Amino acid sequence: MADLTRDDILKLAALSRIDLTDNEVDEFAGEISEILKYVEHLNEIDVDGLQPTSQVTGLVNVTRKDEIQGYGYEPKDLLKNVPEVEEDQIKVKRMIG
Amino acid sequence: MSTSQWLPIRDIAAKVNGGELKAVDLVERALSTIAEKEEFAAILATTEVRARARAQEIDARVSRGEHAGSLAGVPFIAKDNFLVFGAETTAASNILKGFDAPYQSTAIEKLEAAGAICVAKANLDAFAHGSSTENSDFMVTKNPHDITRVPGGSSGGSAAAVILDMAPFALGTDTGGSIRLPASFCGAVGYKPTYGLVSRSGVVAMASSTDVIGPMTRTVDDAAVVLNVMAGRDPLDSTTIDREDDDYTSFSGDLKGKKVGVIKEYMAEGLSTGVREQIESAIEKMRTAGAEIIEVSLPTLPAALAVYYIICPAEVSSNLSRYDGQKYGYTYDQAADLAESYSKTRSTGFGKEAKRRIIIGTYVLSSGYYDAYYKKAQTVRTKLIAEFAAAFEQVDFLVGPTAPTPAFKIGEHSSDPLQMYLTDIMTVAVNLVGVPAISIPAGTSEGLPVGLQIIAAQRQDKDLLATAKAAEGLLA
């Protein structure tokens, strides 16, 4: 089922917010189709009656009280890697044209 | 290369606490070895200023008559996906270049509280995506035994650092084999704990349903000493589980009466002759030492890699969505608007393998394909878990090779991603099932190390370490 075209790759790249070069689009179309062909061997495996697993140690809904906890981090420490800060807030580019 | 300048970790700490060794000298020894072995490109950055200051503090504590901890003065090296003070944390990716950790990983905090001193950050495949450490955005780490070969990955810098004697231990992360594979290729001990036993808070996430962190050392004893400090529940990582044992280090390895299952599927075709010989010989030695050897089949095992290469990129595509140039790390500063800022930052900041995995992950999670790929993979995962559970009804441990071949040449697989993925064929199932596993040195093939993999049921970490120690004694 999986022979990804250039258009498929471009659509996936747009969904992932990544610009790909023409070369990357060509390469990925070939390579990823190949990888998907490999993983499609799973279709031969009978999983009748089985449920999917996403958590392996049996933990369910690990929660804590909804109270603010101090971890000893100062806002200035957490903001020091932000490219642009204004009044302790993260500044981003214009969103709507 | 087999003799180390470092004593066993327990002895180093005892001598530091006893005043016979100075932490400052140990740190200098580590830093000078790192400088001498620079050609192997194992280390991305040292944390020397902070390390020297911490060493002085520890020596001062000892001279005041205090006990400075079970790892007092022991230098170590962290894979560069651990948040550590004293150097940038990049995960070997351009998109995190310059990132200055605002807090440290829980694992690092625990090790520091026990007196250990981080001296450097080790190279890895960017974001831990790879099996050779060739995918680092910065440099290619070389195998300590043969500079033309890869050290394995993704914790290749950590494994090479330990074998190059830069420090008594290093930390790695293992999502699909990234501790065990490089341990096997470099001749180190690599320990992958039960999923959740060690907190991942402050470690750059790859595939959260399989990521674990663990020690890389020269001996099983050293791995146990380090695990013992790191293991346990952490409120900052809700996937952590309670310790099963108060002390993961108090064991005497004895194979007598132990039931050991040889994994049939891992001994099948595709295994190189040299690796097969070493693994068969290791199994014979375990039999002679009193273990009962049984062949065990896990029929779904050959499908584990396909399951992994759906689940892993799916989780990667989600975990890497946070790197958008707005909150931290590299940002493309010529963008006209936010959408362009995202896409240009990500296209210039991510390397090819990260992009490849994001695209695959986005595809298998997208509407119309989710059931056929992601849900199917998660369901086959259930079948694998059931087969491992059935096997552990029958035997105490499973064994097989860690990798089908010894270390390959630099560049040998780098143009074919599927061939590179196949390197992980004997390690990924353990991650999908969440069980603990270890790779220990088991001889050489054409002068290159071979790793024996031993696997136990979930939460049997201490028994696994005990058995690995017994096996290590037979194979030395």
Summarize the structure.
Chain A has 97 residues and is mainly alpha-helical. Chain A is 34% helix and 4% strand.
Fold and architecture overview:
The complex is a heterodimer of chains A (97) and B (476). Chain A has three helices and two strands. By secondary structure, chain A is mainly α. Chain A has a domain at 6-44: Histone, subunit A. In chain A, strands 1-2 form a two-stranded antiparallel sheet. With 476 residues, chain B is an alpha/beta fold. Chain B has a domain at 9-230: Amidase signature (AS) enzymes (Alpha-Beta Complex), CATH 3.90.1300.10. Chain B is built from 15 helices and eleven strands. Chain B has an eleven-stranded mixed beta sheet with strand order 1-3-2-4-6-5-10-11-9-7-8, sandwiched between helices. In chain B, helix 9 (304-319) packs across helix 11 (352-364). Chain B is globular and about 60 Å long. The model of chain B has no long low-confidence stretch (mean pLDDT 96). The chains are: A mainly alpha (97), B alpha/beta (476). At the A-B interface, helix 1 and helix 2 of A face helix 9, helix 10, helix 11, helix 12 and helix 13 of B.
Task: Show the helix and strand layout.
The complex is a heterodimer of chains A (97) and B (476).
Chain A: H1 6-15, H2 22-39, H3 75-79, E1 85-86, E2 89-90
Helix pairs in contact in A: 1-2
Chain B: H1 9-17, H2 23-36, E1 43-46, H3 48-63, E2 75-79, H4 106-113, E3 117-122, H5 156-163, E4 169-174, H6 180-186, E5 189-192, E6 212-217, H7 220-230, E7 259-263, H8 273-288, E8 292-296, H9 304-319, H10 338-349, H11 352-364, H12 371-394, E9 397-401, H13 417-422, H14 428-433, E10 437-445, E11 448-455, H15 461-475
Parallel strand pairs in B: 2-3, 2-4, 7-8, 7-9
Antiparallel strand pairs in B: 1-3, 4-6, 5-6, 5-10, 9-11, 10-11
Helix pairs in contact in B: 2-3, 5-6, 7-15, 9-11, 9-12
